[in-house]
Amino acid sequence: MSEIKTIGVLTSGGDAPGMNAAIRAIVRTAINSGMKVKGIQRGYAGLLENEIIDMDTKSVSEIMRRGGTILFTARCKEFETPEGQAKGAQILRDNGIEGLIVIGGDGSFKGAQKLAGLGINTIGIPGTIDLDIACTDYTIGFDTAVNTAVAAIDKIKDTSMSHERCSIVEVMGRNAGYIALWCEIANGADGILIPEKGDFNEQDLIDTILSNRQKGKTHHIVINAEGIGHSNRLAKRIEVATGIETRATILGHIQRGGVPTAKDRVYASTMGAYAVDLLKQGATNRVIAYKNGNFIDFDIDEALSMTKGIDEYQFLISRLMVMY
Ligand SMILES: Nc1ncnc2c1ncn2[C@@H]1O[C@H](COP(=O)(O)OP(=O)(O)OP(=O)(O)O)[C@@H](O)[C@H]1O
Ligand SMILES: O=P(O)(O)OC[C@H]1O[C@](O)(CO)[C@@H](O)[C@@H]1O
Ligand SMILES: [Mg+2]
């Protein structure tokens, strides 16, 4: 096994607060081990355009407290084709990059898996606000995103209470209801709609709102995940069915930005250093995970074959809490 001399790092898919902490840890750990580090800008799209820069210890100074990713990110259809992947692997080789760390979500890991098959040593770091990666209990950015959403819903509650209204709040999560679930438990709400429980009964939600109103509750919150969507239409239906003035708020990309929490900075830094250690050991096609209080790694094939549902116990708690 020959030692890796140059590694690359890229961020891909939706950005997530804490990605910069991971980049900083990767650059400094690798340089400390005598390796060179190259940053690939704009994810796989930038790789295919050869947008590659040299990184040194100073280039990652003062980035940890910034949201987003200093390497930019993108989604790239071309990279989903075998031709795109072969071109990407060749560009990495042309730049002397023998090991690649991919910070992103499940889609990004599929790209890393393909590059591993083409002889590039790859390591994935879970970076997504959605928390929708099955092999890990933690993904970079979820903690910051959910705290942003919780703070926003607290504010919506103030005005909803003053006007004695019902508020539908749509949070991010295309295929995943974790942000919604945490908000329902952290903020308190009359109901939650998430893609994992797509068979929800709208009449039950209306009945809960009406029953809570009859018991004296003067405002109502419904947390709706993006994967269910259509919040404005839902608001109209609830208003008609209950007679309670109802407004919809879509929180949107505010949840993806902002100053990363301490947890996101520390866990992302740990995962970044761990990824470099794996490359040093000659590992490839691995993804880093946080399980039962430990940082561990899985084969990417195994990680991608796992499925993640919603935490049923947390969901049960959220159901019990709608009681007024
Ligand atoms: N099957 C695949 N093969 C190769 N590359 C892929 C594949 N699926 C996705 N990718 C690459 O990964 C990129 C990011 O994937 P995706 O848009 O699913 O985001 P993600 O990494 O899951 O992050 P998030 O869901 O948090 O935004 C895609 O634009 C594409 O370039
Ligand atoms: O910013 P974009 O590309 O529209 O992506 C939005 C998606 O990305 C995520 O924020 C995850 O990164 C999802 O929750 C959301 O559905
Ligand atoms: Mg994803």
Rg over CA atoms, rounded to whole Å, is 22 Å
CATH class of the largest domain: Alpha Beta
- What pattern of helices and strands is seen along the backbone? EHEHEHEHEHEHEHEHEHEEHH
Q: What is the rounded distance between the termini?
A: 63 Å
CATH architecture of the largest domain: 3-Layer(aba) Sandwich
The major sheet is characterized as: 7 strands, mixed
Give the overall shape.
Answer: elongated
- Considering DSSP H and I runs of 4 or more, what fraction of the residues is helical? 40-55%
What small molecules does the structure contain? adenosine-5'-triphosphate, 6-O-phosphono-beta-D-fructofuranose, magnesium ion
Number of β-strand runs: 11
What is the strand content?
Answer: 15-25%
Low-confidence stretches: none
Mean pLDDT: 96
How many domains comprise the coordinates? 2
Write the CATH fold name of the largest domain. Answer: Rossmann fold
Structural class comes to: alpha/beta
Number of helices: 11
Q: Order the strands across the largest sheet as they lie in space.
A: 3-2-1-4-5-10-11
Ordered list of secondary-structure elements with their pairings:
Blueprint: E1 6-11, H1 19-32, E2 36-40, H2 43-48, E3 52-55, H3 82-94, E4 99-104, H4 106-117, E5 121-126, H5 142-163, E6 166-171, H6 178-187, E7 191-193, H7 202-214, E8 220-225, H8 231-242, E9 246-250, H9 262-280, E10 286-291, E11 294-299, H10 300-305, H11 312-320
Parallel strand pairs: 1-2, 1-4, 4-5, 5-10, 6-8, 6-9, 7-8
Antiparallel strand pairs: 2-3, 10-11
6-O-phosphono-beta-D-fructofuranose binds at residues 13-14, 128-130, 172-174, 226, 256.
